[in-house]
Amino acid sequence: MKKNRSGFILFFQYLKQGFFGNVRKDVLSGLTVAFALIPEAIAFSIMAGVDPMVGLYASFTIAVTISFFGGRPGMISAATGAMASLMGPIVAKYGVEYLFAATVLTGVLQWILGICKFGRFITFVPHSVIIGFVNALAIVIFMAQLPNFRGESWPMYLILAGSLLIIYGLPRLTKAVPSALVAIIVMTIIAAITGADVRTVGDMGEISQTPPFFHWPQVPLSWDMLLTILPYSLALSIVGITESLLTATLVDELTDTKSDKNREIRGQGIANVINGFFGGMAGCAMIGQTVINVKSGGRKRLSTLIAGVFLLFLILVLGDVVKQIPMGALVGVMFMVSFGTFDWSSLRTLHKVPRGDAVVMVVTVIIVVITSDLAIGVVAGILMSAVSFAWKMAKLQVHTTASDTGGKRYTVSGPLFFGTMSHFIQLFDVQRDPEHITVDLASSHVWDQSGANAIAKVVQKYAEAGKKVTIIGLNQESQTVVDKAGFSFVSSH
Fold first, then answer.
1. pTM assigned to the model
2. DSSP secondary structure string, 34-62?
């Protein structure tokens, strides 16, 4: 009885803290996000080569599921461009049913990676890469809106200007409701009353007012099928995790709160598994809609849940109204997201940060903008940062002195690893050195087998020359690395 009561109390606390700690702002921000999700989901469906409803079903299913299982409250997950860009080949070659199966497998792989605590991966992403990722995404979001102006006349620009005026002007008067939500509603009413000839949500694709149903992917259950979709699912899972972790980190900074990255990965996995069985395409965190949510006051899981539920409500009940929303209003909202996402301070401090970090940030931005692939840009930035770090670390200093016994003492400073192995060996003058050599490594540290191997090679060279080497100063961690590598030589702590 006590256990049941204790469980009920914990569940009540979970609901209160996770869903009901910021109700009014969460509801309003969720409503705003739902409007912004529709054109994005349709556009990403077209990009993937599937029916617009596939993206809309995915956005609903993922948002609702992740609100319960995710590790970053207030973050919006749905169908995304980064994931959609990887789906075209499998849809074109095998059909949409294979995409549903690949979505399920993507979720399974993500859940496994979450169990394996892959969330720690985000700690290896340098700050310069994160800034580059954020700035690149802001540019990509801005550029993605430009096609909406193609063939449009002055009414489109007036609606855009009116939307921006409300978005940035209303908060000066009141912050009771999200200005982006007001902008969408007001501009839709104005466009409907005036009969303005502008592009609307309905022009982007057909929206059918039917709910998602459970759908088992119509694919053969065989190893051949599994091996066919595995490469696609693996790519989708890694891209989804990368974008979700980076977005979660951004929200952590914006809200000054912490999140459970491994729980988020598991939640993304569960969401994609359910999503695949309800006719949706694989998705992940959406930085644009997440920024809208946070800027509108959304902080708890309720905001994500409302975004998903209201999205379905818009499709089923207000489908005809949604089709009349002018794209100019939504473009204004996305412009606000772009301007708010970009880290303008990074431009002011670009000349002050280390040159290597500045180069990594700029290159990350360029790669993401050119390829429109966030994963490629982030991976390239991480590799550049790793090479830059290894280059900085690959420096050794040596100081030589004569010992009281007529020998020679080498005092080495700096890390011993694969990047300094050759340099370390070249520090020693085997032929000219006396019969006894002491190598002091108290100011050094052996990081890997290459470092241990470098020491062993130096000892071997002196032994072949009939000379004796004594290694001193190895700390406990370095000695452990040397012992595990299987090397034995005269040493002293």
1. 0.76
2. HHHHHHHHHHHHHHHTS-HHHHHHHHHHH
